[in-house]
């Protein structure tokens, strides 16, 4: 896909492009076969209407076309036009959606910057799960304003947006910071996604890209516990000798991503000096009505899931010297939070949790809704 200067300018301004009939029929048919195969391996091939979203990485030997897709000019040329000639191909994955997907941005921070290409495998309309976007919501203060608006809305359909009906073969490209949703969809609405990041060029941006990639794949693991590594081992072997892929692999190694971020990593991998502070914080989280339901350790990232009534929240904790922009530091650790599934939280939940976590971040003493206690 070669983008015209006008298309590039539109994308920069509004944060998305709709590219009709961008995929040939033969490729589309093969993509359907490969995604079905991947879903069969991950979930037994049966759509689960009880799950809002099923997701599977499509970078392995059973999905050969999709494993090579990042390197193909059809996507790579467009990614390079938008994010530079050294844009990094990160992953391809497929999803099966059930029902509505609420308003969210895939990467809610200023960095890393990147693009997602989404290919719906069935026709979509405004009432059957078509992607809808808020033009320009990838940009600066407007992004923050839209975040507040979508969290305070009681009805996702009432948020002003642009609906992008699509036919199989269409490709929709959008900035990872753009707010988007899909409403009215039925069961098993399948989408294949490819995403790229701008290659970081400073130590600070390298850190942000590294941490975001880890969190991207942790999200995938939450959806599909069978996925345990950041990158597929076969993809990393690069048996085809692709120069483009090898360039990316070398860059990922330089970023410190190829040591493996396995779901089986144990607490011993978490630096012992931090583990004590981590346990201290976790013990504080049990105060009040919040209950710890799971803890895990990945490299220098600690994660704790807590629950209150029907709401779950994930707190992320990492070393003080390596925080994400939204982390706040206290007692040698940096704190942040993320929801396990934003679409399942009501606007009221968002407002209440935002206030509670903001108090925790600022070190305020919480009486009832205590999240962490670093005192």
Task: Please render the helix and strand layout as text.
Elements: H1 5-14, E1 16-19, H2 25-43, E2 53-57, H3 64-68, H4 73-83, E3 88-97, E4 101-104, E5 114-120, E6 131-133, H5 140-152, E7 162-164, E8 171-175, E9 180-182, E10 189-197, H6 203-223, H7 233-237, H8 243-254, H9 272-285, E11 291-298, E12 301-308, E13 311-319, E14 328-330, E15 333-338, H10 347-362
Antiparallel strand pairs: 1-8, 2-3, 3-10, 4-9, 5-8, 5-10, 6-7, 6-9, 11-12, 12-13, 13-15, 14-15
- The appropriate CATH architecture of the largest domain is Sandwich
Q: In this structure, how is the largest beta sheet organized?
A: 6 strands, antiparallel
Number of spatially distinct domains: 2
Can you tell me the CATH topology of the largest domain?
Jelly Rolls
Instruction: Give the tally of β-strands.
Output: 15
Which term fits the overall shape?
Answer: globular
Structural class by SSE content: alpha+beta
The averaged pLDDT comes out at: 75
Poorly predicted ranges: 260-288, 322-375
From N to C, what is the helix and strand string?
HEHEHHEEEEHEEEEHHHHEEEEEH
* Beginning-to-end CA distance, first to last residue: 55 Å
Give a description of the structure.
The chain is an alpha+beta fold. The chain has two domains: 5-254, q2cbj1_9rhob like domain (Jelly Rolls, Sandwich); 267-362, no CATH class. Helices cover 34% and strands 23% of the residues. Strands 1-8-5-10-3-2 form a six-stranded antiparallel sheet, sandwiched between helices. The model is unreliable at 260-288 and 322-375 (pLDDT under 50).
């Amino acid at each position: 896909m070669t983008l015209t200067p006008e298309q590039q300018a539109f994308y920069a301004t509004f944060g998305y492009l709709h590219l009709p009939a961008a995929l040939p029929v033969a490729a589309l048919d093969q993509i359907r076969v490969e995604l079905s195969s991947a879903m069969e391996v991950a979930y037994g091939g049966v759509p689960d209407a009880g799950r809002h979203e099923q997701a599977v990485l499509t970078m392995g030997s059973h999905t050969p076309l999709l494993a090579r897709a990042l390197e193909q000019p059809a996507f790579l040329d467009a990614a390079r036009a938008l994010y530079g000639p050294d844009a990094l191909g990160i992953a391809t994955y497929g999803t099966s959606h059930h029902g509505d997907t609420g308003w969210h941005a895939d990467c809610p921070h200023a960095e890393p910057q990147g693009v997602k290409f989404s290919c719906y495998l069935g026709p979509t309309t405004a009432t059957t799960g078509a992607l809808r976007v808020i033009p320009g919501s990838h940009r600066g203060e407007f992004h923050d304003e839209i975040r507040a608006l979508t969290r305070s809305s009681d009805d996702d359909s009432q948020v002003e947006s642009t609906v992008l009906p699509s036919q199989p073969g269409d490709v929709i490209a959008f900035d990872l910071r753009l707010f988007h949703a899909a409403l009215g969809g039925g069961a098993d609405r399948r989408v294949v996604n490819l995403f790229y990041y701008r290659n970081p060029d400073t130590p600070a941006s390298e850190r942000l890209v590294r941490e975001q990639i880890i969190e991207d794949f942790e999200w995938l693991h939450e959806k599909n516990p069978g996925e345990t590594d950041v990158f597929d081992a076969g993809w990393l072997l690069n048996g085809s000798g692709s120069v483009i892929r090898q360039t990316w692999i070398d860059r990922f190694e330089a970023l410190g991503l190829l040591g493996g971020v396995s779901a089986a990593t144990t607490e011993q991998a978490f630096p012992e000096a931090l583990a004590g502070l981590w346990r201290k914080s976790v013990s504080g989280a049990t105060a009040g009505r919040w209950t710890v339901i799971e803890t895990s350790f990945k490299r220098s990232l600690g994660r704790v899931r807590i629950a209150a009534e029907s709401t779950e929240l994930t707190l992320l904790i990492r070393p003080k010297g390596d925080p994400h922009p939204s982390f706040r530091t206290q007692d040698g650790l940096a704190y942040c939070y993320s929801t396990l599934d934003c679409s399942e939280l009501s606007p009221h939940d968002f407002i209440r949790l935002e206030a509670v976590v903001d108090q925790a971040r600022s070190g305020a003493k919480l009486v009832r809704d205590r999240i962490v206690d670093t005192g």
